[in-house]
Q: What sequence folds into this?
């Protein structure tokens, strides 16, 4: 039986104890695929209104940042939001798991899509929190500038710094179908660049995207591996209310992946994922009434149990 290099195992090896991610959602951040820079509406599965409330300007307009914003009147508020979310989650994790070390995970929206000065202020503040050993920054490959990569590479000299990119698929036709707003060439270019800057990359992949076959899903895994990413997150596509995918599902033009097919594909993926690749996630779901389908994604505990059993039958311990 071989132990898969999970995030837990990687962090324990590196820091001598468990390291917990603290997810952060900063108001005012958006995504070029939502604000119209690249597209509107976002990826077909993205319920973008639910991520975080937008800040309101004095005129009652929604305030959102972009890299070209000249002025950020809400920076102080964003910094205090960061601090309060950190303190709140840290208290819970410390109480529940006796957690001692943390990574600040800028998770919602596109977390490099803001003026560089805003990003610097947020990242620096996060790294000054007690017991924080690093950052993980969720973003898109079309939303990182060389200045941001250079700045992050400076931070990475003394801290653990990860950039998390949504690859989703290695197929342009799929990326178009899901309204991703960038192509595979963009993914390849910016993952290569990010790694050249010495930053660790975690690639997100989705199994069950519209019209994708098992072979296509495995090809996407192969592409991520060929790019040399240090880590992977894989999850099944599920449909939630108020998304374009929900409309397709209701019309009958999208059928979600079955649990059997998801797990079968995952087991095959592990045959090609190198032992040194950190696998941070293999499941996903939501346990509330917003989930439309598939129903097996409403119970992450059972989902994970079934995944573990299947992997064990293949000689792998997750
Ligand atoms: S890139 Fe992320 S935040 Fe932007 S639309 Fe897609 S899923 Fe939503």
A:
């Amino acid at each position: 039986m071989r132990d898969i290099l999970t995030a837990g195992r990687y962090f324990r090896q590196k820091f001598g104890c468990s390291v917990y991610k603290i997810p952060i959602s900063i108001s005012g951040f958006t995504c070029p695929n939502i604000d119209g820079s690249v597209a509107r509406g976002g990826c077909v599965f993205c319920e973008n209104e639910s991520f975080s409330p937008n800040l309101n300007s004095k005129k009652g307009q929604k305030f959102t940042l972009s890299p070209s914003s000249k002025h950020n009147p809400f920076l102080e508020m964003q910094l205090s939001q960061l601090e309060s979310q950190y303190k709140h989650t840290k208290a819970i994790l410390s109480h529940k798991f006796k957690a001692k070390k943390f990574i600040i995970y800028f998770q919602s929206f596109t977390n490099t899509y803001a003026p560089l000065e805003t990003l610097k202020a947020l990242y620096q503040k996060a790294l000054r929190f007690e017991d924080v050993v690093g950052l993980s920054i969720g973003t898109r490959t079309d939303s990182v500038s060389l200045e941001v990569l250079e700045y992050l590479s400076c931070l990475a000299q003394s801290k653990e710094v990860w950039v998390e990119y949504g690859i989703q698929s290695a197929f342009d036709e799929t990326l178009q179908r899901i309204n991703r707003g960038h192509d595979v060439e963009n993914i390849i270019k910016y993952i290569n660049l990010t790694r050249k800057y010495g930053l660790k990359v975690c690639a997100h992949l989705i199994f069950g995207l519209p019209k994708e076959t098992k072979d296509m899903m495995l090809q996407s895994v192969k592409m991520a591996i060929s790019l040399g990413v240090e880590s992977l997150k894989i999850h099944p596509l599920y449909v939630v209310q108020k998304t374009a995918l929900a409309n397709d599902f209701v019309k009958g033009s999208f059928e979600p992946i079955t649990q059997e097919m998801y797990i079968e594909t995952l087991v095959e993926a592990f045959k090609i994922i190198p032992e040194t690749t950190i696998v941070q996630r293999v499941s996903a779901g939501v346990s509330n009434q917003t989930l439309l389908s598939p129903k097996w994604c409403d119970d992450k505990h059972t989902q994970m149990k079934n995944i573990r059993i299947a992997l064990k039958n293949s000689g792998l311990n997750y």
